[in-house]
Amino acid sequence: MAGISPGTWTAGPPGISTCSDGNGGGRPDGTSAGPTADTARRLAQVLADVVRVDQVSVDSHFFEDLGADSMVMAQFCARVRKRADLPSVSMKDVYRHPTVESLATALTGSDAVAFAPAAVAPASAATGAATTATGAATTATGAATTATGAATAATVPTTSGSTATVRPAAAHVPVQPSGPAAASTSAAAPAAPAVQESSGTAARAGTRQYLLCGMLQLLFFLGWSYLAALAVVGGYEWISDASALTDRYLRSVLVGGAGFIGLCTVPILAKWTLIGRFKPGRFPVWSLAYLRWWIVKTLMRTSPVRLFTASPLFVLYLRALGAKVGRNVAIFSTHIPVCTDLLTIGDGTVIRKDSLFSCYRAHDGFIQTGPVTLGKDVVVSEQTVLDINTSMGDAAQLGHASSLHAGQAVPAGQRWHGSPGEATVTDFRRVDAADCSTTGKVLYGIGQLLTLLLVYLPLTTGGVTLLLAAVPQLNAPLDSGSSPFAGWTFFLGALAASFVLFFGAAFAGLVIQGMVPRLLKRAIKPDTVYPLYGFQYGVQRAIAFLTNRKFFTTLFGDSSAIVHYLRYIGYDLSNFTQTGSNFGTEVKHDSPFLSSVGSGTMVADGLSIINADFSNTSFSLSRVSIGARSFLGNHIAYPARATTGDNCLLATKVMVPVDGEVREDVGLLGSPAFTIPRTVMRDVRLNDVASGSELRRRLAAKSRHNAVTAVLYLLARWFHVFAVTLLAVAAEALYPSFGASVIALAGVLGLVFTVCYFALIDRAATGFKAQVPLNCSIYEGSFWRHERFWKLARADYTQFFNGTPFKNVVWRLLGARVGKRVFDDGCSFPERTLVTIGDDCTLNAGTGIQCHSQEDGAFKSDRTTIGSGCTLGVGAFVHYGVAMADHVDLACDSFLMKGEHVPSHARWGGNPACHLPDNAPQPQAATATRI
Question: How far apart are CA 403 and CA 96, in angstroms?
């Protein structure tokens, strides 16, 4: 191609030259073949150095011939980006053009511009509307508009294994959404602004503001704990005064109902009192404006109303918070939006589970708020991210595992997918509408409230008094008048109570999982459309709730036991090949009875099996079948219509294709997905360490090690319950002398104990040593010890400290190297001691820094370093072996692949992430905002 002579460079074993000529580059005669040949020669030189050969052939396949893997090629990309005489190369370029010859042609050819990410248009703030990119005009009355000048779409060929995409034409057609999206200007922009911007440039908060904010947040927590203690004590005393069981039940109903109403009402009052109406703007993290915003966000996120997601009651609650939500809207995501006044949802729209649309983001030390506008009859699929200043026109669709970056707008009637979103012909609306009456909605909502008030809350509030009555030793110290802590009676009573509470609840939960869902499943037939909020809908929600319990998947996951557990709750795992690591500790589904996985398949953490298709009025359940001999990476949404067969590698955060031919014997990466090698030589060598009798021996040893880990997990959790029970009973014993303050103190001490206790467990799981990078088989002891660490050292409790300086203290206590004034709004680190975070970094909600990867039987881990001043966008995911220099901006829902080296002040985004062009929209200027 392009005048390059094949065979100029050859590849051989590392360190052995197989060069066919002696001139070191160019053609054999030493002449140049133009810019493509020069680029190829330089790329070949860089690649030869990375793979440790003297020279490589231009037609040698990176993975099949040279035996490179993604880590090696990430190093190659990083070195190329440092060369001023070479164009920038991304991992997507490498996978799409896996030879030096094809890569050089793509980078220097006439269509090279096609490999740069498309520019994204910023949304207009006028009347809350999104605007078109590349010179499009702003539409009137809050209409959603086109992005990147897209209007009419033309189908273009795609790479094998990718989903069908459409490249928008360069025409602009404004979109007029109806319903709330087309509300009057006064509705979109309230006349009495609650956010006022002052002139000048806002400054980032310093250490003094950081510490002051933390102190004020602590005072808020202590005050809220005291008020909660007063309410709990008052309710408990009133229930205890009842003598008859019926009277005690009725009082439990009243106390529980009052507490529920209070917890739902307080966030509404706090929002309208402390904030008023949210408007687009920004303010520094750790400022007093941030403190008020954080209080409102915390109250919203801890409200029990999240129990009513996928219910008409949830829509009513959003309206009470100021959101403009139309009629017949169905929301299945449990992520409650915060800046609700900036959320507009048109009639008939459906937002499916695990979607993020908070109407705010953190960027470079500031909280930015902006509108999210959805027109009429919009479909937002599973595991999507809608950044601020985004919009979707009427009847628009966004596929699963996709995102809209800030400023993107989907035109009316168009279907988009990918991260960032791009046009496609795939239809993501797969279930027909059904008759969903208003009466049915009302009855369903009333049924939910009655179940909560008459069953769950009385069991919770009355259960404590029944437990104390069943274990009289806990009250003996109070009656005797002696010290509550004298003798062994008190401690034995607490031990017995915690044992019954923990192991009894675990056993009962396991029995219920095996019996109740099997009875309920008879009420629902596969591939049948049912209306929302009817009997079958309630049954489906009950099955999903009962069979998706994280306690059990954590207990049995990463071991041979997980296969038996999943079969027990209904999975079809017939003729399944046991590997000892078939599933991780995080797997969920809509129906276990319609989920099947082929023999020999292995699944990492974060699999979401999507059995249910939803519209705004109906739902349908379908069987999901995952092929045999496949591997599924982390955080994958696997839909029922997936077109993947046997022997597939589905990479982390891949968008599983739902159209086109069935993919087999390939790997898929990215969103939208494109093909990559199914496996590489380096991973095969790690996976081939055991076979036959040796495999059986190692599998048996791994199972024994995992069984001990499960026992340790149960004992560690039980002791934690025992300690918390001891604190609670001690507080109850001291209450007559010290009042409600001792109850509040017990709650604070319980939180402190939880942090310190699990920090000790975390360190003990690694032998009180920092973890080291690994490159091993899953049948080696070093991997088994890593599995034990995952199970024992789960740090879910750290989410309690989101948005506070105390989150950084907890991370340091767990071994992470975290710099000064880091803002963490919900990031997770599975391997804390392998993570380094620089000063003044911004970590958004839903982000993850994962310092490991497993592919089939090969396991690898390495350190990841995030430089000072970096920003990880909402839902971004950073892999192992990554080095981000200072002040890097990683866009929302991006996947920064293993081994990537990102230069300072760079802006990256996408799945997989690559450098964003200079003409992409820049973050807004930092203007001070008062709320």
Answer: 22
